[in-house]
Specification:
alpha+beta, five-stranded mixed beta sheet, two-stranded antiparallel sheet, 7 strands, 15% strand
Length: 183
C-alpha cells in the first residue's frame, strides 16, 4: 500500500523501495535508508536480509535496533518471523485485514517467539490482491510509528497488539477470537 502513501508524480518509473527512500530522505535527510527490492520468499533473500539486520546498524558492523515489516501475506510473514527469531531482534508488524477496513499492529520483543496470525490471512487466495482503503493503512502506519517512537524514547507503553476497525470506529488491545500463533 506504499503506492498510496509515498509515491509522488516525480517517482514515476521507480520501484516502491526507491520511492520510499526518496520520500523518507526528503522528510529527514539525516536518516540513512538502505533499500532492497527483493521478494522475501526467494531462496537467497533470508540470508541477505539477516546479514543486513546483523551488520546494518547505525554503527558499522552492529545490528539494527528493530525490525519493521508490513508484508501482505502469510508466507512472507513466516519468513520475517524466522529471520527475526534467528536475529533475536524486536519486531513490529502491521497488517491490513481482507475487508480493507481493519487491521492491526503487533510488537514482538526480542525475548518472544510468537506472532499472531489471523483467519483472514488463511482465507486469502495465493496471488490475489487484498483491497484496502488508504485511510486504514494510514491509521495503522500512525500506530506503528507511535509505538516505535515509544520504544526508542522509552516513554509510555508499547502495545503488544493494537487492532483497528474503521467500519465501526473501534480500537482494541486484544487480538480477535480467531487469532492463533503463527507456526
Amino acid at each position: 500500500h506504499l503506492n498510496r502513501m509515498l509515491f509522488r508524480p516525480e517517482h514515476a518509473g521507480l520501484s516502491k523501495t526507491q520511492a520510499a527512500k526518496a520520500t523518507l530522505a526528503a522528510l529527514n535527510p539525516v536518516v540513512a535508508v538502505e533499500t532492497f527490492n527483493i521478494d522475501v520468499l526467494s531462496d537467497d533473500a533470508s540470508s541477505m536480509i539477516l546479514e543486513r539486520l546483523m551488520l546494518g546498524g547505525v554503527e558499522a558492523d552492529e545490528p539494527v535496533d528493530v525490525i519493521v515489516s508490513c508484508v501482505d501475506n502469510r508466507d512472507a510473514r513466516l519468513v520475517v518471523s524466522e529471520i527475526r527469531k534467528t536475529a533475536g531482534l524486536p519486531w513490529f508488524d502491521a497488517s491490513t485485514f481482507t475487508d480493507g477496513l481493519s487491521g492491526c499492529v503487533q510488537y514482538m520483543p526480542e525475548n518472544t517467539t510468537n506472532v499472531l496470525e489471523f483467519a483472514s490471512d488463511l482465507a486469502v487466495v495465493q496471488g490475489s490482491l487484498m483491497g484496502s482503503l488508504s485511510g486504514t493503512t494510514s491509521i495503522l502506519a500512525g500506530i506503528l510509528v507511535q509505538n516505535i517512537l515509544k520504544l526508542h524514547l522509552e516513554v509510555g507503553v508499547v502495545a503488544r497488539y493494537t487492532g483497528v476497525n474503521t467500519m465501526d470506529n473501534t480500537m482494541g488491545t486484544q487480538p480477535p477470537f480467531d487469532a492463533t500463533d503463527l507456526l
